[in-house]
Design a protein that fits this description.
The protein is α/β, with parallel strands linked by helices. It has a single domain, classed as Rossmann fold (3-Layer(aba) Sandwich), CATH 3.40.50.2300. 39% of the residues lie in helices and 14% in strands. It has 5 helices and 5 strands. It is globular, with a radius of gyration of 14 Å. The chain starts with 8 loop residues before the first strand and ends in a 12-residue tail after the last helix.
Length: 154
Amino acid sequence: MRNATPITILVADDDADDRMLIGDAFEESLLQNRVDFVEDGEQLLAYLRREGEYEKHQGESYPGVILLDLNMPRMDGRTALKVIKEDANLCRIPVVILTTSKAEEDIIRTYGLGVSSFITKPVTFDGLIEVVKAIGRYWVEIVALPPECTDRAA
């Protein structure tokens, strides 16, 4: 099942090198979707709520999937995930943890908070490209997303 409207993929990661590599991996995977980046949980929530510098996204659909790092300054991914899943307007947006953590505690806690998937960042760029291709194929081509992620009037 392909989503009728191209979804936006939102990446929340504080590491500039990781953001660059993830962006490059999306380009290499030939995914045509828009990929936006934020640097921490506070920016993530401002983006989703269309506040401050993200007001320009008013009237756009929510992202079709959020790739969320756990270890970020100001507001980490665990806290941001909790806020997203407790917000009636945001809770249906799929969130995929993409982090360096392999801690069982993080896996258990984030699934308990409602994360859709937990992926440990690969150590090689080729590995990252494969992960991004799989994420793209699954979240863009296979799953059905809620209307707020696919309709432009969200």
